[in-house]
Amino acid sequence: KIPNALWANLIQEHLSNVDCIKQGWILEGFPENQEQAWMLQSFGIFPRHVGTLRVIKSPSCLLPSPAEVYHTTFHWPSDPEVQQRLEVPPDLSEQEVSRRLLEYHRSFPELFQIYQKVLKSINADQPSVDV
C-alpha cells in the first residue's frame, strides 16, 4: 500500500506538467477517502469537477486479451465464438466488487462533504454512450 503523502506528491508532480496545465487532468479512483482528499488539498490540488457513477449492478466480461471489453447488458458480442472466450477478470469477482462497494459507501459521505460544491452524480446503469 502506498502512503497517502507519496500519492499526493506523485500526483502533484505529474499535474505540474505542461500538458496537464494546458489540457486539464482526470484522476480516476483517487481520492478514495477523506484523508487522501485533505492530502490533495494540502498540496494545492483542487478539482473543478468531481464525478461519481451510480450503478446498481453492472456485471461485465473481458476477453482474455484486454483489447476489447464487453458488458453483459449494454455491449454483448454477437459472435458466439467470442462469447465462449469471455471471462470475468479476478478483480471483478462478486466478493471483490462487494468489498470495494462497502469501502466506497463508508468513505463517500466524507468525500461528498469535501467536494459537495463540485460534485456531479451520473447514472451509469445505461449504455456507455448515454453516460
From TrEMBL:
Top-level lineage group: Eukaryota
GO molecular function, one term: kinase activity
Keyword hit for Transferase: yes
Keyword vocabulary terms for this entry: Kinase, Transferase
Protein name: KAD8 kinase
